[in-house]
Design goal:
This protein has 13 helices and 12 strands. The two termini are 13 Å apart. It folds into 2 domains: 117 residues, NAD(P)-binding Rossmann-like Domain (Rossmann fold, 3-Layer(aba) Sandwich); 183 residues, Rossmann fold, CATH 3.40.50. Helix 1 packs parallel to helix 13 and helix 6 packs across helix 8. By secondary structure, it is α/β, with parallel strands linked by helices. The radius of gyration is 21 Å and the shape is globular. Helix 12 links the parallel strand 11 and strand 12.
Length: 316
């Protein structure tokens, strides 16, 4: 019988917990410090979302660990090489298209951020709450008629493209690795040309050594003056210092980010984060705490799929 520790149990799928119970005992209480260390000591399965970073020091606390289960496509919250050295299997959604094709949350959030930025919705709300009612302060822009560039046109980029096409946008994409794209998408073979044509750039790439800081000072200079940036992929794709400079100078008209470079669930990394400080003083930067995939529907679906895979792996 295998013990499972769910590291982030708040609102976790009851069906998933029931599946893990088939393997043995399940720890699904919110724990930290010594209490968590005690649970990890004999854990064979740990389940997490994005709040923990699983490195060597963490793995030292779980000497019996066999499986790390994460209902995510990205794995930058896990030291994959260290896990492999210890013979620990990682079960994730990476490459699991039969599940991820049914998930709409992140693509919907991308469109939501785009609309919020173009129509300045959060700032208009704050204006009304503070007692204002001046619509002239919040004259925005439309998606219809805009040229929107998708940096990456895999599963998420594909879905975002289809939505944008229905909204009347001209959709272009830069992705050297994709050939299967919607008919509405014009592929652009050169990054500089792609950035220079886009009124809005929306990021949809995996985090790899090639894509780390893929958008830096040079790339922001290539973008149109007055262009906007949306990122619901991974924070490390963007050089935050360069983005801050592009916003501060006025070269970029705005940005909406669901991800930041040094994320931590407790938010302490934000204390000296330049983008958070900029957003507190300006109304052209929107930040959300990595909620792209955080809907009840998508989380339950992905958690259940991962739980089923873990049960199959240990029983099989």
């Amino acid at each position: 019988m295998a013990k499972t520790v769910i590291l982030e149990p708040t609102n976790y799928s009851p069906k998933s917990i029931a599946l893990y119970s088939q393997l043995g005992s399940v720890s699904s209480a919110v724990l930290d410090g010594d209490a968590l260390d005690k649970e990890l000591n004999d854990a064979e399965v740990i389940v997490l979302r994005l709040a923990f970073y699983i490195d060597a020091a963490f793995l030292d606390k779980a000497p019996r660990l066999k499986i790390i289960a994460t209902p995510t496509t990205g794995l930058n919250h896990i030291d994959v090489i260290e896990a492999e050295k210890r013979g620990i299997r990682i079960i994730s959604l990476k490459g699991w298209r039969e599940v991820t094709e049914k998930i709409y949350a992140t693509s919907e959030h991308t469109i939501g951020l785009m609309l919020a930025l173009l129509r300045r919705i959060p700032f208009a709300h704050n204006h009304v709450v503070s007692g204002g009612w001046d619509r002239n302060l919040f004259i925005g822009h439309e998606i219809s008629g805009a040229t929107i560039g998708l940096l990456g046109c895999g599963r998420l980029g594909y879905r975002v493209a289809e939505i944008l096409d229905k909204m009347g946008a001209k959709v272009i994409a830069y992705d050297p690795y994709q050939t299967n794209v919607p008919a509405c998408v014009e592929m652009v073979g050169d990054l500089r040309t792609f950035l220079g044509r886009s009124d809005i750039v929306s990021v949809h790439v995996y985090l790899t050594p090639e894509t780390t800081h893929m958008l830096g000072a040079q790339e922001f200079a290539w973008m149109k003056s007055g262009a906007r940036l949306i990122n619901t992929a991974r924070g490390q794709v963007i050089d935050e210092t360069a983005l801050y400079a592009a916003l501060e100078s006025g070269h970029l008209a705005g940005a909406a980010l669901d991800v930041l470079e040094d994320e931590a669930a407790d938010g302490k990394f934000l204390e000296d984060n330049s983008l958070r400080e900029y957003a507190a003083k300006h109304d052209n930067l929107i930040l959300t705490p990595h909620i792209g995939g955080a809907t009840r529907e998508s989380m339950a679906m992905t958690e259940d799929a991962i739980a089923g895979a873990v049960v199959d792996a240990l029983k099989g």
